[in-house]
Amino acid sequence: MRTETIVILSQREIEKMRKAGRLAAQLLQHLEPMVKPGVSTQELNDEAERWTQAHGAKSAPLGYKGFPKSICTSVNEVICHGIPNVKQILRDGDIINIDVTPIVDGYHGDTSKTFLVGNPAPKTKKLVEVTEECLLRGIAEVKPGARIGDIGAAIQEYAEAQGFSVVRDFVGHGISNVFHTAPDIPHYGTRGKGKKLRAGMVFTIEPMINEGTWEVEVLSDKWTAVTRDRKLSAQFEHTIAVTEDGVEILTAL
Ligand code: MF3
Ligand code: CO
Ligand code: CO
After folding, report:
1. Is 105 helix (H, G, I), strand (E, B) or coil?
2. Which are the contacts of 220, defined by CB distance < 8 A and separation ≥ 6?
3. Ligand 1: which of 58, 64, 98, 221 to mutate, most ligand atoms within 8 Å of CB?
4. Is the torsion defined by CA of 76, 78, 83, 88 positive or negative?
5. Which residues approach ligand 1 with their CB closer than 6 A?
6. Is 150 annotated to bind ligand?
7. Protein fold of 9-247
8. How far is CA 246 from the centre of its chain?
């Protein structure tokens, strides 16, 4: 549980979050055409780092708590925090989540998508589609006066109704000039529970949805989180701001 106070951002700070968020979305869009059978996750990392620097930004993951690379690349049974590697080559039928977080003028834009590599099996595509819909349903709950639990409840209800499970061990987070801060945003929960949302709060929603068990195992590299049953996992993430009349997606194009 994060215990920091939840910050309400000023309009000036939200404008900086918009700039960072837009660059993050553009970076994912820039990488998308590279996602093809035969590319290595290291090549995706290197292009992300080059493009980020060329746009005058920094990669938040690089060196964050010792993370060794500029982006996270989470393939198939990897839930999150996959480490790019020259030896990891994408194959037809894989899925890969690419999670990017450029820092622009001190502020963070955090977004991720799961991409299809070539032509995955229908049930794999369904997992990815359901996960994206989970993110959208979570975002749709956001407005002043709603509760943090409403977000998780909407995601969990839909994911489980579709036969999938929701990861508990990783949650969305407050974000601004720091990468991860209060509040925690669980992707499961109960309507009407949790803190009330207020205009000016900025946080991520980033559901990780699994084909099988929601249980996680972290590999010996201390980062790579995989499903305990090695079945597939997908994730989508946006950084959002609570506005006076609802929600603004900061990492949309
Ligand atoms: N971008 C991830 C998130 O959504 C965090 C990655 S931390 C890292 O919160 F160190 F693995 F990069
Ligand atoms: Co992220
Ligand atoms: Co995040």
Report:
1. coil
2. none
3. 64
4. negative
5. 61, 64-65, 67, 72, 81, 99, 101, 110, 204, 206, 237
6. no
7. Creatine Amidinohydrolase (3.90.230)
8. 21
Distance between CA atoms of 244 and 211, rounded to whole angstroms? 37
Dihedrals phi, psi of 202, to nearest 5 degrees: -130, 125
Neighbours of 245 (CB within 10 A): 9
| Angular region, 182: left φ>0, alpha ψ -120 to 50, beta rest | beta
Q: Are 186 and 204 in contact (CB under 8 A)?
A: no
Give DSSP secondary structure letters for 66-80.
Answer: G--SSSEEEETTEEE
Tell me the angle at which helices 148-161 and 122-140 cross, rounded to the nearest 10 degrees: 160
Query: Among candidates 111, 106, 3, which has minimal Cα distance to 57?
Result: 106
Cα–ligand 1 centroid distance for 53 (angstroms): 18
Q: How does pLDDT run along the chain (253 residues), one tens digit per residue?
A: 888 999 999 999 999 999 999 999 999 999 999 999 999 999 999 999 999 999 999 999 999 999 999 999 999 999 999 999 999 999 999 999 999 999 999 999 999 999 999 999 999 999 999 999 999 999 999 999 999 999 999 999 999 999 999 999 999 999 999 999 999 999 999 999 999 999 999 999 999 999 999 999 999 999 999 999 999 999 999 999 999 999 999 999 9
- Residue 208 CA to residue 226 CA, distance in Å, equals 11
